[in-house]
Model the fold of this input.
Amino acid sequence: MMRLEHPAYGVIREVTPFASVVLADNPSHMTLDGTNTWVLRDPRSSRSVVVDPGPDDAEHVRRVAAAGSIELILITHRHIDHTEAIDSLVGLVQAPVRALRPDDCRDADPLAPGERINVAGLTIEVVSAPGHTADSLMFRAGAAGEAALLTGDTILGRGTTVLDAHDGDLGDYLNTLRTIIEAADGIPGLPGHGPEIDNVAPVAREYLAHREERLDQIRDALRVLGAGASAREIVEHVYADVDRHLWPAAEASVHVQLTYLRQRA
Done:
């Protein structure tokens, strides 16, 4: 049988021996091809774990529920394209939900960074990953000598991550990227959006270099525009060659970068 490649809507696509993905049909400039809902299980287990139920689309939720007997649902972060379907999926499969935020949990305690969970024949380590949002987590999952890092929106399968203007933090995000570089070299990344990544650590290095380059551009812009320049003014200066429909996302990211620079001034 031919191996399916990303993007593949309407199917459960196997990516590794213990990880399959259901791609939600919610493409946009923020979600790329859509939100990835991951289904994890050791091949020898009859139970499974779902990471990020995705948008509350009835077909998507039914497809995830049909992936097998779901023992646990995990959440990488609070954004609605990852969490909207929590209650619909729970209604079908009656599984507990665990996240860092109590508001996203159902019939279970919040997750603790560093916690190890043994479920569905897997060992899943909860990795603190603030930056994209304050509550962002990653999950390092392993079975039978294989491992993968579920990155949520911390690392994407294509392009770069926008930091949330409400509670994103660039200092935290840079530290999270350094954690990936140090601790995840040689293992694949399973992102919240976009295709899987063969080795996640080199991508984290590229992200780190990109962020440092953007910071230098903003420093240069502040020297031209003045120290009090707004995020919008900087976007118009730095992103002049970028399609304008991407400017709102760029402005949110620049706002976070300005906060980072001004806190260290």
